[in-house]
Amino acid sequence: xxxxxxxxxxxxxxxxxxxxxxxxxxxxxxxxxxxxxxxxxxxxxxxxxxxxxxxxxxxxxxxxxxxxxxxxxxxxxxxxxxxxxxxxxxxxxxxxxxxxxxxxxxxxxxxxxxxxxxxxxxxxxxxxxxxxxxxxxxxxxxxxxxxxxxxxxxxxxxxxxxxxxxxxxxxxxxxxxxxxxxxxxxxxxxxxxxxxxxxxxxxxxxxxxxxxxxxxxxxxxxxxxxxxxxxxxxxxxxxxxxxxxxxxxxxxxxxxxxxxxxxxxxxxxxxxxxxxxxxxxxxxxxxxxxxxxxxxxxxxxxxxxxxxxxxxxxxxxxxxxxxxxxxxxxxxxxxxxxxxxxxxxxxxxxxxxxxxxxxxxxxxxxxxxxxxxxxxxxxxxxxxxxxxxxxxxxxxxxxx
Length: 400
What we know:
Blueprint: H1 4-17, H2 23-39, H3 44-55, H4 59-69, H5 90-98, E1 105-115, E2 119-128, E3 131-141, H6 149-159, E4 168-173, H7 180-188, E5 192-196, E6 202-205, E7 212-213, E8 224-231, E9 237-244, E10 253-257, H8 273-282, H9 297-322, E11 331-332, E12 345-346, H10 351-365, H11 391-394
Parallel strand pairs: 1-4, 4-5
Antiparallel strand pairs: 1-2, 2-3, 5-10, 6-7, 6-8, 8-9, 9-10, 11-12
């Protein structure tokens, strides 16, 4: 296989899944993401050097081509050059994930990450087999006061058309992002919020007259409770409370959802940790984004597009490779580790690293790109629990 064949093949894949991009934009996006895989870095010079050496091109030529991908239109050389549109890529990215996706349930996670004193990134990721794949983001300058509500609402709205009707979609967020408007915005999309809340609130179980402090639903380690009711005496929210205090955790999980108590499992909230692993892959664990010299949020957002495509590719290839591994080669989890559960067994090698190894081997062997597909594993479930006596709740007076 010639040097150009794998580039052409990947360019076709990118253009197919990003049909709204111009051929020139799709071509450079393919180069950026392929170069990141080969260099294991998103640094402009590192990617340019590895691509130029592999393709027998001049480094400065490749470097300028990659650099201009991140520029606004007026900063590019030539007449009538346009900036790469980032936000219209969010729905196609999510469609790329669900193309050939096994099953009809998917988990999204919302979280914020920072890059020193330069950027704050609000990101929505698909959480999959221990990884987080960014599919929508907003990069804001750090240190500037700005409401996050419009950003999250816009991102959720941009992704909504990408998921097929009838799918079960849960949206996970940690305590710092809980808000009633976010809960309702997720429900309006036909999705199901899984939002963790702080211990300081209250909850009134359905059919009871009084609100109870949230901490009283799981007062000791090992206890679990779930049921319908109203959260918070002010700014009241009708919802289901899922409560669980796992061994080894400083605080219990207190999760609010719109799903019925018998249709949800608090163990699903463990998937949220995977977005943090995704941030690690973008930085020191993978693409080395922490070394970027960029200071402009719009340019950084275009670089994130290439990061997202490269991550999606590696995780997709790594997932296909992992699906062939017998379960006997995976380390089993103890019951006490369920609150950290990331898979049916602990991964000895992450999907990111496995996908990178498979793609690098394909380049060295001069073979075609390895097969890629998304095969999600079952969501984590807590084991059945014998009903426990709950004096505080059992003594609550019934509603009149």
